[in-house]
Amino acid sequence: MPELPEVEHAARVAHDAVHGRVLQRIDALHPAIARDGAVDRAAALVGRRVVAVRRVAKWQEFAFDDGAVLVVHFRMTGDWAVHDDAATPRHGRLALGFADGRTLWLVDPRVLARIAYHAPGAVRRDVAAPDAHDPALTPAALRARFARRRVPIKLALLDQRLLAGLGNIYAAEALWHARIHPATPASRLSLARVTRLLEGIRWALGEALADPGRQQYGESLDRLAVYDREGAPCPRCGAPIRRIVQGARSTYYCGRCQRA
Ligand SMILES: [Zn+2]
Q1: Residue 28 domain-assigned?
Q2: Confidence tier at 221 by pLDDT (50, 70, 90)
Q3: Which CA distances in Å does 114 have to 44, 118, 220?
Q4: Considering its fold, how many domains does the chain have in total?
Q5: What spacing in Å lies between the alpha carbon of 146 and ligand 1's midpoint?
Q6: CATH code (residue 26)
Q7: What is the CA(174)–ligand 1 centre distance, in A?
Q8: Which tens digit of pLDDT belongs to each residue from 68-89?
Q9: Residue 209's pLDDT band (cuts 50, 70, 90)
Q10: Is 132 a member of any domain?
Q11: What are the C-alpha distances in Å from 160 to residues 59, 107, 205?
């Protein structure tokens, strides 16, 4: 699952490639992309202009000039390819063709990406939780969302119904920055600790957003403090990084400076 910074990067790529352009065709090139009819319904977008592409949580939203929205979620292996000729790239699953010859291809080897179409004025129910990177999110509002959750804070951070956009890597990094043990029940966090946690989330995502392409292709994880660094020294106190399993996924943390 791509993390929020990778989705932000992808949305910028799509925005730069197609904003201001008029859609000429939208074609599903694989039955799995076409399965729920969203691509068929999105044919209503032909002739409309893309105003902007923006990230909302882990979705990418194409806003059109009539108020309609095309939503793309990459899931596991999705990515964009931009071409100014008609050749279909390997694993091309969806084609967004524009009037000047440009095509934005959704490339997705495993074909797990999801497409949704919202007609102008449609009521949206798919994005309920606040975005982890929303500057308007306050510590008090975040604490209120955790108030009745006794699950470990690491799992609460991954629950997209509570907070949208954080994945396994940056949840661990944010908890390290905030010095919070990942097994601490979410409901037990004081306002002061949630304030530090929100700072940690912004620190982790800010570092990544400053260089959003860095993990896109499995490149260096060197700049991460704890993720995938079991046994390496904590950058803050030097104690060895530990690994535990929570919700069937690895969590990395410092046993000395992250406290319950
Ligand atoms: Zn430490």
Answers
A1: yes
A2: low
A3: 18, 13, 28
A4: 2
A5: 25
A6: 3.20.190.10
A7: 13
A8: 999 999 988 899 999 887 789 9
A9: low
A10: no
A11: 12, 25, 16
Q: What's residue 133's pLDDT?
A: 80
CB-based contacts of 50: which residues, under 8 Å, 6+ apart?
18, 19, 20, 21, 22, 23, 62, 63, 64, 65
One domain, residues 153 and 107: no
- Please give the distance, rounded to the nearest whole angstrom, from the Cα atom of residue 230 to the centre of ligand 1: 12
Average pLDDT over residues 42-53: 95
Q: Does residue 219 have a pLDDT over 50?
A: no
Q: 130: closest CA among 161, 154, 163, 167?
A: 163
The Cα 104–Cα 92 span in angstroms is 10
The alpha carbon of 50 and the centre of ligand 1 are apart by a number of angstroms equal to 47
Q: Is the pLDDT of residue 194 over 50?
A: yes
The tokens of 102 are what? 């440009």
C-alpha distance across the termini of the chain, in Å: 28
Gap from CA of 255 to ligand 1 centroid (Å): 7
Residues 122/159, Cβ–Cβ less than 8 Å: no
Same domain, residue pair 54 and 111 = yes
Instruction: Phi first, then psi: give them for residue 43, nearest 5 degrees.
Output: -60, -20
Name the residue with higher pLDDT: 4 or 201.
Answer: 201
Q: What is the per-residue pLDDT for 220?
A: 47
Q: Which residues are catalytic?
A: 2-3, 58, 249
Identity (one letter) of the amino acid at 31? P
